[in-house]
UniProtKB/TrEMBL annotation:
This is Serine acetyltransferase. Gene3D superfamilies: Hexapeptide repeat proteins. SUPFAM superfamilies: Trimeric LpxA-like enzymes (SSF51161). It holds the Pfam family Hexapep. InterPro entries: Hexapep (IPR001451), Trimer_LpxA-like_sf (IPR011004). PANTHER family: SERINE ACETYLTRANSFERASE. Coiled coil: none annotated.
C-alpha cells in the first residue's frame, strides 16, 4: 500500500494486492485485484477494467 490511500469502513482487501498512491477504497468494497494509483475502488468485488 502506497502513501495517501484512504480505506473506508467495512472494506475488505484480500491477498497480495497493491493499492496505488492516492487511491480510495470505498465502504464495504471487496478488493481482490490491484488498484492503480489515483483510482476510486467500489463494488463487490472491485473489478479493475484496464
Amino acid at each position: 500500500m502506497e502513501s495517501g490511500v484512504k480505506i473506508f469502513a467495512g472494506a475488505i482487501i484480500i491477498g497480495g494486492v497493491r493499492v496505488g498512491k492516492n487511491s480510495i477504497i470505498g465502504a464495504n468494497c471487496l478488493v481482490l485485484s490491484d488498484v492503480p494509483a489515483n483510482t476510486t475502488a467500489v463494488g463487490i468485488p472491485y473489478k479493475n477494467n484496464k
